Amino acid sequence: MVSADFQSWAAARQSRIEATLQNLLPAPGIAPQRLHAAMRYAVLGGGKRVRPLLAFASGELSGADSERVTLAGAAVELIHAYSLVHDDLPCMDDDVLRRGKPTCHVEYGEATALLVGDALQSLAFQVLGEYRLASDPNDQLHMVKLLASASGSRGMAGGQAIDLDSIGRRLSVPELELMHIHKTGALIRASALLGARCGDELGQTELDALDTFAKLIGLAYQVVDDVLDADAPTATLGKTAGKDADRNKPTYVSALGLAESKSFAQQLREDALKALDPFEDRALRLRQIADFIVLREF
User: Fold this and answer.
1) Which of 155, 12, 139, 172 is nearest to 72 (CA)?
2) CA neighbours within 13 Å on the CB side: how many for 227?
3) Which of 140, 155, 212, 235 has the most C-beta neighbours closer than 10 Å?
4) Helix 258-275 and helix 204-231: axis angle, to 10°?
5) Contact, 239 vs 46, CB < 8 A?
6) Do 85 and 104 touch, CB atoms closer than 8 A?
7) CB 21 within 8 A of CB 78
8) Helix (H, G, I), strand (E, B) or coil at 123
9) Is the peptide bond before 32 cis (omega within 30 degrees of 0)?
């Protein structure tokens, strides 16, 4: 059970991220109007904002300024939103529902949806370059590199490529882990590290502990997604339920079964929480996010 205290903390930061995204995205009346309206459609008014929440929680480890973390979290959320728009395209996962409403290409057409993804990715890096997010310019340059690496062929895009190549095949658990460390985990790890780097410098031992936590909770996030896709209704998910099985995509449920997948998610959560031991009370919000990720509609 996620505490009321965490729900209040998260809601305040979700509202802050939403307002910041509202301001960062071009207004729909600015040319090209259709593209800008579609960008706002894809980003605003939906989603749990887990990645920005991770940035905020990690920022508490380093005493980070909340304005800086908000912008870093918004940049990550723009990358995440672009990835969802592209993942839903007919040439990818071919889905028609996202966050309880028609996907971007259904609402605006495939060509516009493709441009939405391109523009959101560019805007994310504009944000990282336009605002001062770290005291040391070299640290901010490292933040740009971190998000770029997490988004590219060695991260999220590479994971999606592996996913597409794996349709119709039965993957082992280590093969699934490799895919999702890239597809889902890379951006989650980047969220945590970006938030921490907005504040005072952490020691390498602490950075390694944070990275281990983020890697484990990123995998747990995907395991829970696979469980929910197999076990929850479309109304709960806000996207088409059972899509993975219909497309014969390899998942943790297809590899392990439903019950063992649930147990695996719990084990990943326990290991992730253990990784936070060096931070003691400073990691309260990260611990609560771990619960939020693994216990959602489980």
Assistant:
1) 139
2) 22
3) 155
4) 160
5) no
6) yes
7) yes
8) helix
9) yes
The answer to whether residues 282 and 61 touch, using CB atoms and an 8 Å cutoff, is yes
Write down the residue that tokens 């890239």 correspond to. Answer: 182
Whether residue 243 is predicted with pLDDT greater than 90 in this model: the reply is: no
Give, for 180, the enclosing helix (H) or strand (E): helix 173-180
Residue with the bigger pLDDT between 47 and 118: it is 118
* pLDDT score, position 23: 98
Instruction: From residue 288, give the alpha-carbon distance in Å to each of 7, 58, 192.
Output: 9, 12, 14
d(CA 109, CA 127): 27
27 contacts: CB under 8 Å, gap ≥ 6:
36
182 token code pair: 């890239």
Q: What angle do CA 233, 235, 108 make, to 5 degrees?
A: 120
Amino acid occupying residue 23: N
Three-state DSSP at 98 gives strand
Contacts of residue 129, defined as CB under 8 A and 6 or more positions apart, other chains included, come to 144
Yes or no: say if 9 and 285 are a contact pair by the CB < 8 Å rule.
yes
- In this prediction, residue 169 carries a pLDDT of 86
The whole-model pTM stands at 0.93
Distance, in Å, from the CA atom of 101 to the CA atom of 62, rounded to the nearest integer, reads: 38
Q: Where do the domains of the chain lie, and which CATH numbers do they carry?
A: 4-295 (1.10.600.10)
Kindly list the distances between the CA atom of residue 90 and the CA atoms of 30, 75, 105, 219, 235, in Å, as whole numbers in the listed order.
28, 26, 9, 26, 22
pLDDT, tens digit (0-9, with 9 covering 90-100), for 172-214 = 889 999 999 999 999 999 999 999 999 999 999 999 999 999 9
Across 18-31, average pLDDT? 97
Strands 97-98 and 101-102: antiparallel
